[in-house]
């Protein structure tokens, strides 16, 4: 009996996460590239500091902040009322910092002849009313619909802005990260997906939405409507190392990283 | 009978899910428990049992309409039948009528005191459930929602009042009105109150239940407190019951790196404050060892160990002790 108990304790201790990081950030895979790059540069300037960055989605990051598992939550959507309520009940006072702006980019395989799409057509594709590329001016073939999963802030923003609250079709492929969506669309000729601006690459073709191509100018000016701010959430106003890191992201060096990773600076 | 009801509900649910648009997820909760009970230091019972299991099915028809069906399953020698199942929840939510609120219709939670969001930090039920002051679920309609900016929540509910296990002659003609309010004035402090009023019942004339709750979180320390009052019978001939619960819990994860919570709890319940000898005090000590956290920090696999001592006001009744160790595991599928 003692042996079993001992083994259980050892296995459990071995499983426990032991990052030993000075600062842990968890959440949105859209925000992830900015923070990853910023953390690398910050740690290069301050070798004594250890920063861990994890994805998982905005919902996971916010839950981790409430549970005290991370210091900063990364989110590509604002916190919901029930999340704020849960946080406050548990003694967490969520404090929001906008670090960048992003556009939701609608992407297809580079071989797809389509160049533009309307919000209404997108809605019809994602809710299952349109199934063939022929119906949207393409060369035919089944549309392979790629979406983010429900823990994703990108998904929630897309659902609100494009689907107007309607449900994604049942046969859509729900993927856990922007990277997974980008890779799948790049490898699937009939696919359509949506990603954060920072994940756009030559392996993907961005579509104009309602006649506007997403880029720094159209997103900043508001002409491209599928745009959103990107957030960091802390418990109370940032203090200590969290404050130093967030100040760095908002500094000219940090905002340069924002731009280099494909997003739009806010300062 | 219970099986027929469950089979009928689940079959209907399957049919609806097959026909209706939307998405479903399924969850399962299983509580496997060892219990040793002693009365005045003499072992009275020692048993293993699957004390509780739930199958939960959520289905979202649209963003504004969703539903939940929970089937409660148990298999234990504690009951003559040895095993059983019953429907715990079966309701539809209609959202969007009022901002951040939903209208819930069906067999649903009782929005009273701590009973509706009791996550079993101790193996025992919360005070009002344990002392059978109110059932954890009931048939009815409720409007429940969040106060803007995370400042709390509210509920107004009309239910049978007798709870989900009562039916036919045990359910009266007068529904019960229930109101609940919780406020979070500053992060870490929650205060609230609930009241249930029923004009008459099969086992009483006039029933008024009231509860006040407080929850304080200071770093890894959380303290729950609840006051509970019950008045049964007409004015001038009222039986008054009262009690309280205090429960501090210390989260050791940040301090030790091991995901364990230490829990202590003290309950007192006096069914009739004017009668001597019917009160009891229950002291609980134990821990919850989270072997695996579920998604978003929810329970995955947890080992709960509790020691409970019950002391009775009646001098003829000796103290009772119970040691319980429970392995509890829960999971929810991704949307299907």
TrEMBL record, chain A:
Q: Which InterPro entries match?
A: PBP_domain, Phos-bd, Phosphate_ABC_transporter
Q: Name one GO biological process term.
A: phosphate ion transport
Write down the superkingdom of origin: Bacteria
A Pfam match? PBP_like_2
Molecular-function annotations in GO: phosphate ion binding
Using the record's annotation, list all stretches that form the PBP domain.
18-252
Q: List the SUPFAM superfamilies hit by this protein, alphabetically.
A: Periplasmic binding protein-like II
NCBIfam families in the record: ptsS_2
PANTHER family, alphabetically?
PERIPLASMIC PHOSPHATE BINDING COMPONENT OF PHOSPHATE ABC TRANSPORTER, PHOSPHATE-BINDING PROTEIN PSTS
- Tell me the protein family, please: Belongs to the PstS family.
Described purpose of this protein according to its UniProt entry: Involved in the system for phosphate transport across the cytoplasmic membrane.
Q: What is this protein called?
A: Phosphate-binding protein
Task: Report the source organism.
Answer: candidate division WOR-3 bacterium
Lineage of the species this protein comes from: Bacteria, Bacteria division WOR-3
UniProtKB/TrEMBL annotation, chain B:
Looking up Gene3D superfamilies in the UniProt record yields: Porin
User: According to the lineage, what is the superkingdom?
Assistant: Bacteria
**InterPro entries from the xrefs?**
Porin_dom_sf
Q: What is this protein called?
A: Porin
Organism per entry: candidate division WOR-3 bacterium
């Amino acid at each position: 009996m003692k042996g079993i108990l001992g083994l259980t304790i050892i296995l459990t201790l071995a499983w426990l996460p032991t990052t030993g990081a000075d600062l842990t950030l968890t959440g949105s895979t859209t925000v992830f590239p900015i923070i990853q790059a910023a953390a690398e540069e910050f740690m290069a300037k301050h070798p004594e500091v250890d920063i861990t960055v994890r994805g998982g989605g905005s919902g996971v990051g916010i839950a981790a902040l409430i549970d005290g598992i991370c210091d900063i939550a990364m989110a590509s959507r604002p916190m919901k009322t029930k999340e704020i309520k849960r946080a406050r009940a548990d003694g967490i006072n969520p404090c929001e910092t906008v670090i960048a702006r992003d556009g939701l980019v609608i992407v297809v395989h580079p071989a797809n002849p389509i160049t533009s799409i309307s919000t209404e057509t997108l809605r019809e594709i994602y809710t299952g009313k349109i199934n063939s590329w022929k119906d949207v001016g393409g060369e035919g073939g089944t549309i392979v619909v790629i979406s983010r999963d429900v823990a994703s802030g990108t998904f929630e923003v897309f659902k609100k802005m494009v689907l107007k609250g309607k449900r994604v079709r049942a046969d859509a492929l729900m993927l856990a990260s922007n990277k997974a969506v980008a890779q799948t669309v790049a490898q699937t000729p009939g696919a359509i997906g949506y990603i954060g601006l920072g994940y756009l690459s030559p392996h993907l073709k961005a579509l104009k939405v309602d006649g506007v191509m997403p880029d720094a100018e159209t997103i900043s000016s508001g002409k491209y409507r599928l745009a959103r701010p990107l957030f960091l959430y802390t418990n109370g106003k940032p203090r200590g190392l969290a404050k130093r890191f967030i100040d760095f992201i908002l500094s000219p060096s940090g905002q340069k990283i924002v731009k280099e990773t494909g997003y739009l600076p806010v300062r | 009978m219970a099986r027929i009801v469950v089979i009928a509900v689940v079959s209907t649910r399957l049919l609806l899910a097959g026909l209706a648009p939307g998405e479903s997820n399924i969850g399962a909760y299983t509580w496997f428990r060892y219990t040793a009970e002693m009365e005045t230091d003499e072992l009275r019972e020692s048993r293993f049992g699957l004390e509780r299991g739930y199958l939960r099915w959520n289905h979202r028809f649209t963003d504004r309409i969703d539903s939940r069906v929970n089937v409660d399953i148990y298999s234990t020698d504690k009951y003559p039948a040895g095993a059983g199942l019953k429907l715990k929840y079966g309701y539809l939510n209609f959202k969007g009528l009022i901002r951040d609120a939903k209208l819930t219709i069906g067999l649903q939670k009782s929005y009273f005191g701590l009973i509706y969001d009791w996550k079993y930090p101790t193996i025992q039920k919360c005070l009002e459930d344990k002392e059978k002051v109110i059932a954890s679920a009931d048939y009815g309609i409720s409007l429940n929602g969040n106060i803007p900016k995370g400042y709390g929540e509210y509920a107004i509910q009309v239910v049978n009042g007798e709870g989900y296990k009562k039916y036919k002659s045990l359910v009266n003609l007068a529904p019960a009105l229930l109101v609940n309010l919780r406020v979070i004035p500053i992060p870490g402090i929650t205060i609230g109150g609930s009241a249930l009023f029923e004009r008459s019942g099969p086992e009483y004339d006039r029933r008024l239940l009231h509860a006040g709750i407080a929850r304080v979180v200071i770093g890894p320390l959380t303290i729950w407190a609840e006051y509970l009052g019950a008045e049964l019978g007409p004015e001038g001939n009222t039986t008054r019951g009262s009690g309280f619960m205090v429960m501090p819990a210390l989260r050791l994860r940040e301090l030790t790196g091991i995901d364990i919570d230490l829990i202590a709890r003290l309950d007192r319940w006096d069914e009739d404050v004017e009668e001597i000898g019917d009160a009891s005090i229950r002291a609980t000590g134990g821990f919850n060892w989270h072997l695996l956290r579920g998604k978003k920090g929810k329970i995955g696999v947890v080992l709960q160990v509790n020691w409970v001592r019950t002391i009775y006001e009646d001098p003829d009744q000796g103290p009772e002790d119970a040691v319980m160790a429970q392995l509890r595991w829960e999971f929810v599928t991704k949307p299907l």
